[in-house]
Amino acid sequence: MIYDGDTGGHPEVFRFTVRALERLGVSACIIEDKTGLKQNSLFGTDRVQLLEDVDAMCDKFRAGLEARVSDDFMIFARIEALIAGAGMEEALMRARR
Question: pTM, whole model, 2 decimals?
Answer without folding.
Answer: 0.84
